Amino acid sequence: MRVPTNTKPLIQGAVLGAIACAAIGFIWGGWVTGGTARKDAVIAAHGATVTALAPFCAESFRAQGDASARMAELTKASAWERNRVLEKSGFASLPGSKTGEPDLARACVELLMAPVIPKT
Q1: Quick one: pLDDT band at residue 13, thresholds 50, 70, 90?
Q2: CB burial string 78-103: b at 16+ within 10 A, e below
Q3: Distance between CA 49 and CA 94 in Å, rounded?
Q4: What pLDDT, on a 0 to 100 scale, did the predictor assign at position 48?
Q5: Considering its fold, how many domains does the chain have in total?
Q6: Is pLDDT of 21 > 90?
Q7: Structural domain includes residue 109
Q8: Are 104 and 53 in contact, with CB atoms under 8 Å apart?
Q9: Residue 20 and which of 3, 14, 54, 81 are 20 to 30 A apart at CA?
Q10: pLDDT, tens only, 72-111
């Protein structure tokens, strides 16, 4: 069997080209592995859940019977203690969870402490 003399450089070039293509794709092309894609999807889903539930948390906090006293307590607390105050209130928990969710508490506090713009 006769193999053309240019076969070895052709195969070496193809292998080096494939390695270069993969390296460029993963480093600069934005390619990721399946595990990284799943991790990113979980993080995005959690962020979307927090974004969707934060307005309900803030509205529920404002609708409670002693809302003015609770709001004064929240305002009086230091910036890093506000999340814990809201988590203890029970409004910053995900459905089906008995414990408070720190990210939801933070987003809810941001909504509660934002200045209210009157509707015109």
Answers
A1: very high
A2: eeeebbebbbebebbbeeeeeebbeb
A3: 9
A4: 95
A5: 1
A6: yes
A7: yes
A8: yes
A9: 3
A10: 888 898 888 988 888 888 888 888 888 888 999 999 999 9
Q: The pTM is what?
A: 0.71
Compute the distance between CA of residue 50 and CA of residue 39 in angstroms, rounded to an integer: 17
**Under 8 Å CB-to-CB from 51, ≥6 apart: which residues?**
107
- Asked, for residue 100, whether it belongs to a domain, the answer is yes
pLDDT of residue 5: 81
Q: What is the pLDDT of residue 68?
A: 87
DSSP structure string for 29-57: S----HHHHHHHHHHHHHHHHHHHHHHHH
Neighbours of 109 (CB within 10 A): 23
Query: Domain of 94?
Result: 56-113
Residues across the chain: 120
Instruction: Return the closest-CA partner of residue 81 out of 47, 106, 103, 63.
Output: 106
Reported in sequence order, the residue ranges of the chain that DSSP labels E, i.e. its strands, are none
